Amino acid sequence: KKRVVAFISGGGSNMLALARATQAADYPAEIIAVISDRPDAGGLSKAQALGIPTFAFARRDFDSKDAHEAAILAELGRLSPDILCLAGYMRLLSGAFIQRYEGRILNIHPSLLPLFPGLHTHQRAIDAGMTEAGCTVHFVTEGMDEGPVVLQGTVPVLRDDTAETLSARVLRVEHLLYPQALLQLANGSVRMEDGRTVRPLSRAHPSGT
Ligand code: GAR
């Protein structure tokens, strides 16, 4: 099985969805550890309850972003993961960090990228009058929320939606989408090549159609 480390900053519901999906005997990956930049992240105790080792690296314990990342990279060196899954990790990784795990970092973002990168996505989608919203799992590249898309899921935006009701609807889809996307990366049916998503085994569209 591919060794996966999940990165969280908060409640960790996506991490939990990944952990549960990967427990299936025939799933090609397993969550071997959870790393948080917040020692108080609610997801840490959820991971521990499943017997998953957790590591917290508070940014304030380090003098610089470089030192913070160096500590995380050192732990990753010991864990030797194949894949990193950012699951509500609210910190931008440096270019050097991303290059170290190029093509092996996934992120989930609660919008239909390239629409609404960054924060407050649900309120922005409502304010823009969108009738459809959703979530995206993508490969992580240096630009924030810019990497090539692996999978997207959509939900309707309802007339009386608030950011809270919309985010709850999107989150339920996130929990289905992320395990599917990780499955595809872990079993080799998707990869990143030259900054693009490639699906080696998918059949080309018949010519002339
Ligand atoms: C999720 O909705 C995730 O898509 C979002 O944070 C939430 C984390 O929830 N991520 C981002 O906004 C990243 N820019 P969780 O901790 O319960 O998985």
Descriptive account of the structure:
There is one protein chain. The chain is an alpha/beta fold and 209 residues long. Helices cover 33% and strands 23% of the residues. It contains six helices and nine strands, in the order E-H-E-H-E-H-E-H-E-H-E-E-H-E-E. The protein has helices spanning 13-22, 43-49, 65-79, 95-100, 121-127, 163-186; strands at residues 2-8, 29-36, 54-56, 83-86, 105-109, 132-139, 149-156, 191-193, 196-198. The strands form two sheets. The protein has a seven-stranded mixed sheet, sandwiched between helices. Strands 8-9 form a two-stranded antiparallel sheet. Strand 1, helix 1 (13-22) and strand 2 (29-36) form a beta-alpha-beta unit. Helix 1 runs parallel beside helix 6 and helix 5 crosses helix 6 (163-186). The longest helix is centred in the C-terminal third of the chain and has 24 residues, at 163-186. The protein is globular. Residues 8, 10-14, 43, 87-88, 108-110, 171, 174 line the site of glycinamide ribonucleotide.
What is shown here, in short?
This protein is 33% helix and 23% strand. It has 209 residues and is an alpha/beta fold.
Category from helices, strands and their pairing: alpha/beta
Instruction: Give the SSE string.
Output: EHEHEHEHEHEEHEE
Give the spatial strand order of the biggest sheet. Answer: 3-2-1-4-5-6-7
Q: Describe the main β-sheet briefly.
A: 7 strands, mixed
Number of helices: 6
Which outline best applies? globular
Q: How big is the Rg?
A: 17 Å
Distance between the termini: 39 Å
Which regions have little confidence, pLDDT < 50, spanning 5+ residues?
none
Number of strands: 9
- Ligands and ions found: glycinamide ribonucleotide
Mean pLDDT: 96
- What is the helical fraction, as a range of percent? 25-40%
What percent strand? 15-25%
